From TrEMBL:
Residues 77-91 have a biased composition (Basic residues). This is Protein CMS1. It comes from the Eukaryota. Residues 56-76, 181-190 have a biased composition (Basic and acidic residues).
Length: 345
């Protein structure tokens, strides 16, 4: 069988078959090829954050807040401690400044203003945590302090009435030359005291005692109470004041001399003109009622004596604290404010 062949002489489709494409179809195809495929895609929805991630984020933020709060609290506590330390340092500076100003003056010649400042500084150092309102209740009034010894001596020579307690005033005494070592005392006995009695502080003490008539009328009610830094210092002071005991006895009121109960019994049956002791023991004896303060009693503090570290009766911590917590407090304080005057030597 013979097949009919085209002009080209080849079989099947051929490029020369005069086939033409539809122009509209070609244009449509070209237009479609220029379209951005993203135009027909929906925008992606936000991806949900897992709950566990949110929890961790909140927990992290919470920790940061807690850390900030802790840091603020630490700063507040640090500032508070600094204020407390500054308060204590200021109290120490106040006392040091007053001591420097008055170091060339005998404590017996301190004015009431200087004594008040010293006692106030001592009180603040003893109670550094107390508020100003609390301290106000413990301050000693200015009028409780004696005038300087030089002023009292001058006034005594001219009027013989400076302390305003006639029953306590000596009508005749050589105040410029108080008895010292190996001189006769008021009862004609020889005083063989140690050389300490002629020291400046003891001379000023003896002059102050010379202003008073020491004649106690009741048991356990001394005219003069002397407070010292220690029992050893009390012994030295007792030697110095014996020539001035008048018609009474000199009582040794400190822990190492007698038991407390023995001292109570002693005071109940003894007329004491001068009592020498430490703040703790004297304060407790006043609280117990064995030692009494009568109108016109004089309390003298041994501020001229210092220990090896230059501390005094009102600056040595353990003694100073007893002074304010026992002697100048409670029942003892009430009796002092009602009956006594305070001085120093």
């Amino acid at each position: 069988m013979t097949l009919a062949m085209g002009k080209s002489g080849a079989g099947g489709d051929d490029l020369d078959d005069q086939f033409e494409l539809d122009p509209e179809l070609v244009a449509s195809s070209e237009a479609e090829s220029n379209v951005d495929p993203d135009e027909y895609l929906e925008p992606p929805s936000p991806r949900p954050v897992p709950k566990s991630t949110l929890g961790k984020r909140k927990e992290s933020e919470g920790r940061e807040l807690d850390q900030d709060k802790d840091e603020v609290d630490k700063q507040k506590e640090k500032r508070k401690r600094k204020r407390e330390k500054d308060k204590i340092r200021r109290a120490k500076r106040i006392h040091t400044g007053v001591t420097t100003i008055t170091s060339d003056v005998s404590p017996a010649d301190y004015t009431p203003e200087i004594l008040s400042t010293l006692f106030t500084s001592s009180l603040k150092a003893s109670l550094p945590q107390a508020s100003e309102l609390e301290l106000t209740d413990l301050y000693l009034p200015l009028n409780i302090f004696l005038l300087p010894l030089s002023t009292r001596l001058e006034s005594f020579r001219s009027s013989k009435s400076i302390i305003e307690q006639p029953s306590h005033i000596k009508d005749s005494k050589d105040l410029s030359n108080p008895p010292t070592k190996k001189q006769d005392d008021s009862k004609g006995r020889i005083n063989n005291d140690q050389s300490q009695t002629s020291s400046e502080s003891f001379i000023s003490l003896q002059k102050q005692l010379s202003l008073l008539s020491l004649s106690p009328t009741t048991f356990g009610s001394p005219n003069i109470i002397i407070l010292c830094l220690s029992g050893l210092r009390c012994v030295d002071v007792v030697r110095a004041v014996k020539p001035y005991r008048g018609n009474g006895e000199v009582a040794k009121l400190f822990a190492k001399h007698m038991k407390f109960s023995a001292q109570e019994e002693y005071l109940k049956k003894t007329k004491v003109s001068v009592a020498v002791g430490t703040p703790a023991r004297v304060g407790k004896l006043i609280e117990s009622g064995a030692l009494r303060l009568s109108e016109g009693s004089v309390i003298l503090l041994d501020l001229g004596h210092e220990d090896s570290k230059k501390r005094t009766l009102i600056t040595l911590p353990e003694v100073r604290d007893e002074l304010w917590k026992t002697f100048f407090n409670g029942k003892c304080r009430q009796m002092i404010l009602a009956n006594a005057k305070i001085g120093a030597f």
